[in-house]
């Protein structure tokens, strides 16, 4: 873990639970794509920088999930580097309590206020194409989170952030976190058509051909959607949908999974309603979902 892997003339990644991209600007200066999950990840990155006599100029966060911004504070404090994050995710990076609050739908209990969902605050600026160094191109990848982005480097390496999961991860957990299902599917269709010398997803192995994995993720989204619609053959509440999915997929419920999968299920319900496949009905003081 935390080995440095080269994938292009100027492009690398650091093997970690959420891969950290590294792009060499010149012989001495580098920038990062994300920073890992916590202070310890930041320390590991700093050791790699010191070993190679590299100076960290900037961190470009793909989105604001804690496992991608957790090393920000430490690295910024150690190196004075700039940090940039896209759109709404910039606000979440500067105010990370927003992530567990958003997932839970209210003030989060202590069970959700830990480093897995709550990173330390760092000082981020808005990420736009004009702040990127020469050789980095911004790619919009919305859906998994609010304004998530990826990057293409001048040596044709594409960092894909969390826009897809490995097949092994989906087989184990079944329901990957999604904020906007329609945007997520559009992103996956876009990624499926991409060409690059190497793709580096944050949670899957690097590959030269991303299309099969993108299609597997697309198919999984439709499988879950069809399952939810089937559950709506009789009016059913959101919590009951969540319970049935956990039981049918053999998932283990805890506060983290309740928040992550629960938020995702509500996003599916909203998408299916907007698509005309479900309707919302209010009966006996409760919101119920019914297949159309």
Based on the model shown, name its key terms.
Arc Repressor Mutant, subunit A, alpha/beta, 10 helices, Metallo-beta-lactamase, Chain A, 292 residues, seven-stranded mixed sheet
Offer a concise description of the structure.
This protein is an alpha/beta fold and 292 residues long.
Notes on the protein architecture:
The protein has helices at residues 39-51, 66-69, 72-79, 87-94, 98-104, 167-173, 181-192, 211-231, 238-249, 255-274, and strands at residues 4-6, 11-14, 20-24, 29-33, 55-60, 82-85, 125-126, 136-140, 149-153, 157-161, 198-201, 278-283, 286-291. The chain has 292 residues and is of the alpha/beta class. The protein folds into 2 domains: 4-162, Ribonuclease Z/Hydroxyacylglutathione hydrolase-like (Metallo-beta-lactamase, Chain A); 231-291, Orthogonal Bundle (Arc Repressor Mutant, subunit A). The strands form 3 sheets. It has a 7-stranded mixed beta sheet with strand order 1-2-3-4-5-6-7. The protein is globular.
- CATH class bucket of the largest domain: Alpha Beta
Total domain units: 2
Please write the string of helix (H) and strand (E) elements: EEEEHEHHEHHEEEEHHEHHHEE
Instruction: Give unreliable regions as ranges.
Output: none
Q: In the CATH hierarchy, what is the architecture of the largest domain at level 2?
A: 4-Layer Sandwich
Chain-averaged pLDDT:
98
Structural class of the helices, strands and pairings?
alpha/beta
Sum up the overall morphology in one term. globular
